[in-house]
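User: For a reading group we're discussing how well predicted structures match intuition. Take Ligase-associated DNA damage response exonuclease. Before you show the prediction, I'll give you the sequence so everyone sees exactly what went in.
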Amino acid sequence: MELLQFTDKGIWCAAGDFYIDPWKPVQRAVITHAHSDHARWGNQFYLCEQASVPLLKLRLGPDIKVQGIAYGENIYFNGVRLSLHPAGHMIGSAQVRVELNGEVWVASGDYKLESDGIAVPFEPVRCHTFITESTFGLPIYRWEPQQQLFSRITNWIYENQQAGKASVITAYSLGKAQRLLLHLQDKVTRMMGHGAITNVNDLLIAQGYPLPHIEKITPDTPKAAFKNAVIIAPPSADDSAWMRRFNPYSLGVCSGWMQVRGHMRRRNADAGFALSDHADWNGLLEAVAATGATRVYATHGFSSVFARYLSEKGLDAREVSTAYGDEETITNPET
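Assistant: Thanks. Here is the predicted 3D structure of Ligase-associated DNA damage response exonuclease, as structure tokens, for the group to look at:
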């Protein structure tokens, strides 16, 4: 029997009787990170990295039964040894290492290799079998260096200010928005945000993260306050009445999908920035190689292409269908 199995509820460890990121309610769920496609409501017990605990409670409710453990800490379920290791995807994100009788599997969740300055950076974990995401598993997706990208975003903001426009930037409220705030805080004088952004931001500031406090936009915020401001909004606010109040403004979209120019046109954006919390093509290949795994399961994203490429390189690689998605396209503003 496989140490981890793909079932209609999620990734299941039969020997330890737990699921990793289940998409249907189960008794015991091990959660890689707090994004809504990986951490769902309805499980009886949650286990996650300790920094994810307040984020899970914010998203799923304060009364959930959740236990947080530190990176590298061992916990045992029916003799199965489980530990969590940094994934670099966002605050509290983790890879799940599972070991029984010397056999080691790692379920990566979502990950990126470049340090963003706020999440604990990705650490490869040696294993026999590696379950990897493949959100951007095509060779066209190769990210430019982070500092270079943020320089372009900053210059775009300055150009908008010279034109007397607000700069509205859409970014997922949990993860990417914090990267923007961290890197822009010393470069702009006024940042404001949608409630979905400020709720997460205020929680993380209370947890001790070095993020700037930003003003929450309310129906009472005067229009004059928006001139030349930087406004961070979730993707769901795009082309909404909430956003139209900022006129005149320029819209910038932060998403890995902006690597393909057609996506920017479809979003009616004035600027597109390929800022992603997922590994690009080279990052995926580097991560797989660093594990030393001889068997790889590719999940959500361009999984068939990525698995086929790995197979051509001599690995036992397979595509697996899961219910995970891409938070960059999720439209619920409360997540």
